[in-house]
Design goal:
The protein has seven helices and ten strands. It has helices at 22-29, 66-76, 97-104, 121-126, 143-154, 202-220, 222-225; strands spanning 3-9, 33-39, 52-53, 63-64, 85-94, 108-113, 118-119, 130-133, 187-188, 191-192. The chain binds S-adenosyl-L-homocysteine. S-adenosyl-L-homocysteine binds at residues 88-91, 113-115, 117-118, 133-135, 137-139, 141-142, 145.
């Protein structure tokens, strides 16, 4: 089984960007996931190929037309497509590692990248789009947000990252942040590696890491412990 991503965007040339590099790009080369891009403008219906119009009720900016976006969605995703349809949006539910894990276990995703002031509400309803936010700030478009989501998802697909169990200890996987990491040299600018980590006592190492994780989480992200 392979993860099939369809991205609808006015800027397909921004992809694959970081999704083409390193293990994520190699994973696509090995057929573990695929990325198909659809140019929204190809679904414009008028001779000016317009995809947006002024907001009903007035105000600044432009709004993506529902008919154009619906046509693009219908072209990549038929009615029985099991994949979730995501709309990158600052109004969405904030993306979490838990949602990322669920997506990675599924067949793929259809991802709509917004632009301008926003998207006509009726197409969000009519095509059952799930709004997903990557954080409480506003980007200029959904493309970078879609890349963030896909990079987080694809690295969890079996075979994409080298060591399968390298996920288990990571930040958020156990509801805590990851413990501090060290490597050689033994002394860096006068700072030593905590002695327990070079003691060879695996039980002690595990306990130190668990405690360090908890301390870090309590001071930086107490919300995660609640
Ligand atoms: N006027 C809108 C913001 C539009 S920003 C509002 O106030 O909600 C233009 C596009 O960028 C959005 O349609 C969305 O696709 C994308 N975008 C901006 N911020 C985002 C975020 N935090 N997460 C996901 N997508 C975002």
């Amino acid at each position: 089984m392979s993860f099939a991503a369809d991205v609808i965007t006015l800027f397909p040339e921004l992809f694959p960007g970081p999704l083409g590099a390193s293990v994520i790009g190699r994973g696509a080369g090995e057929g573990r996931w695929s990325l198909k891009l659809t140019q929204l403008r190809d679904f414009a219906v008028d001779r000016h190929r317009s995809v947006d119009d002024t907001p009903s009720g007035g105000g600044a900016g432009m709004v993506l037309r529902p008919d154009v976006l619906a046509a693009a969605i219908d072209a990549v995703s038929h009615q029985n497509d099991p994949r979730p349809r995501l709309l990158m949006s600052p109004r969405g539910k904030p993306l979490t590692q838990q949602r990322v894990r669920a997506l990675a276990a599924g067949p793929g995703a259809v991802i709509v990248c917004g632009r301008f002031e926003g998207i006509d509400e009726r197409v969000i309803e009519a095509r059952n789009l799930e709004e997903v936010s990557i954080g409480d700030y506003v980007l200029a478009g959904g493309e970078v947000a879609a890349m963030v989501l896909l990079e987080a998802v694809v690295r969890l697909i079996p075979g994409v990252l080298g060591a399968e169990d390298s996920h288990a200890d990571e930040s958020f996987e156990n509801g805590v942040l990851e413990y501090p990491q060290y490597t050689r040299p033994a002394v860096f600018e006068g700072r030593e590696i905590p002695a327990v980590l070079t003691s060879g006592d695996h039980g002690k190492v595990a306990r130190w890491r668990r405690e360090a994780s908890e301390t870090l989480t309590r001071s930086r992200r107490p919300d995660l412990l609640r």
